[in-house]
Design a protein that fits this description.
9 helices, TIM Barrel, eight-stranded parallel barrel, alpha/beta, Lyase, Ornithine Decarboxylase, Chain A, domain 1
Amino acid sequence: MPLKPPAAAGMAFADVDTPALIIDLDAFERNLKRMADFVGSAGVRLRAHAKTHKSPIIAARQMALGAVGVCCQKVSEAEVMVEGGIGDVLVSNEVAGAAKLDRLAALARRAKVAVCVDDAGSVPEMEAAAAKAGVTLDVLVEIDVGARRCGMAPGQPAARVAEQIARSAHLSFAGLQAYHGTAQHVREASARREHIARAVGQVEATLGALRAVGLEARIVGGGGTGTYEHEAASRVYTELQCGSYVFMDADYARNKRADGGLFDAYEHALFISSTVMSVPEPERAVLDAGLKTFSVDSGMPSPWKLPGATYHRPSDEHGVLDLANAKVRPGRGEKVLLVPGHCDPTVNLHDWYVGVRGFGTAAAHVESLWPVAARGAVF
């Protein structure tokens, strides 16, 4: 059962308890609109990735602006989305185990559900689950386009599995999953473009192999916040699977544009609000936000609008703010905002979003409280 939220609607932002997961609603809405405008002009579809936000409320806002549905990485995550009213879900991942496959197939009675495979052996297992549930599942073949994670070899090997799916009574071949996760965080714009150019070549080879056996891919899915413009321009990708654009974490902000500047197409909209709990010495403050508040797999969080300050040495419930080079030194009891290094696993540590309107102004106040409904949905 979720804990009580750290705030209440109408409360002044300054009164929100800490640590708290904060959404700058104005920046968040601008991010949603910017991506919606892009896909509309590019002639591709957006299937936004819900693993970033784990919230049917946010998913519904994305779909209200034109997204065709969402991606999830786990069956339990998909269940939360469907329960929350999202009617079109792709599990953009492989699913192993009879229990999970049975749950996935049962979910297809309530919503449009698709899933990925990258092994011929999984097809009869998926067919059995779909037959048991009395449904037809859409299935995408995932190909490895360079990330070296899941995905089978492009070209003829993928086409053979697609044929196997198409021959199944309760499965429908829907297309290809061709996401290049590694490329999202390559810093130089030219290198990211080259990675996706190679991925496009592998997709094209696979589409050719599919045509040779009389099959067409209705969906070619992939693309993320770091590379989506390249997939959209390729003329082979039909659906973009961007997720982090809604929040923009510190790691994505380290990517570079083609002109060498830092990637700034989307605004930081997700923050951790923390409190200085101790100031043992003038150059060192201790915050009440540590490893149980945010993920540090993609680097430490960045202090927001506190020039010269750095966050380091996190422990379970503490984090040290180095103020040696800071122009402003917050005192005990003052609030400090942090931009998470990686938004997705940070969100999974919290029960509630605190939506703030007028962020950064004297009138900043809590407008909404949204549960992180799929928190812990990792099975």
